[in-house]
glutathione transferase
Amino acid sequence: MADSKMKLHCGFIWGNSAALFCINEKGLDFELVFVDWLAGEAKTKTFLSTLNPFGEVPVLEDGDLKLFEPKAITRYLAEQYKDVGTNLLPDDPKKRAIMSMWMEVDSNQFLPIASTLIKELIINPYQGLATDDTAVQENKEKLSEVLNIYETRLGESPYLAGESFSLADLHHLAPIDYLLNTDEEELKNLIYSRPNVAAWVEKMKMRPAWLKTVVMKNHIVDLMKQRRLPIRLDSSCHESTVVAQKNAIAIENK
């Protein structure tokens, strides 16, 4: 089992949720260390020199090991603690290769689209930046094409790597959850109009480890609230920024 030295430095973004989700699937004890990356806490000299020179979260500390990048963290946890909690790595080499393939699909096909939409619809407005409506529409169209491929795959097996939930599935849920909790009904329809994709998403959202992750995400949002709320609407604060800030908080509370 993991010892008390395990720490996860994380904040408000989907990659952090994937790391939390994985820890909860494994049932590991750890300390959650909140990093307010929007306020620049991941860019301090101490953080850059001791945790992640790229100034990003999440960062895992497990004993003397320090890891950044969500997929590196979850892969390590799945391998190091394979016999603890949920087995997230298929035992069969062929199925494990399929899992790895779909993790690459996530990185190269799905996540660039999802992250652009999240950036334009949530992060940019939250930071007072304009939303690029053209980029939003273009990426909705790209997402539709990618989800058609997922719909076919998930018609062949309940999960991306086969019959069992794996890291390939785990990494998709957090960004999907963000997309589903925007005010864009078209995004919701893109997912729920595809029965195989919809069933896959709903099964993952009902996993006890994900429900526990949501509670932890809410805790992170509470910490954000303590620093940023109440939000005042005045001449120096554009209304769209306030709405996006409130939406960002609401998303994590769902």
Remarks:
- The chain has two domains: 7-87+209-228, 93-207.
- The chain has a mean pLDDT of 87.
